[in-house]
Amino acid sequence: MIVRLLLLVVLIGSTVALSDWLRDLQKEFQPASSASPAGVPDYAFQEVKLTVMGMGGEPRYRIEAPRMAHFLLNDSAKVTSPEVWFYRDKGPAVELRSELARIAADGRRIWLLGEVEIVSPPYAGRAPFIVHTRNVTAFPASQRAHTEAPVAAVSGDERLQGVGMVLDLAAGTLDLKSRVRGTYVP
Q1: pTM score
Q2: Using CA atoms, how far apart are residues 32 and 59, in angstroms rounded to an integer?
Q3: Which of 16, 40, 128, 162 could form a disulfide with 176 if both were Cys (CB 3.0 to 4.6 A apart)?
């Protein structure tokens, strides 16, 4: 009788231990929650220096910022006070600075939000080219940027103003869309 009771207690204890072990094992193999609460990053970096390379190993663009946060919900990134350099095949890199940026999940689109300054340094006898605007969308693959906001551009003594722009970073051309005014000093 005591042997049967002892055997029953051991059997119940083993069953409880086995079920606890299986429950822990199940938790271990379950995927992590795929969604952070809205607006909460899943990880963040300080003092970011990120260089995106082309297929041939050449740098395509570089981002430096004091802070970058990643959001799992839509696999995007938010960058604080970014400086973005787009490398061109010919000539020096063009720099874009803004208050804030959002980078799409696939890296094909960068939204530069707030005040944006675009600087193309002097090259081949040309004066530096500086553009001031707001809310620019940049496309790294095609090296184009555009906005619908007012634009002010300066190159040496030349001044341009307009509303909306398409900037071809590779070719170094600026198309103003409307209300264009300019000053040219020969």
Answers
A1: 0.73
A2: 34
A3: 162
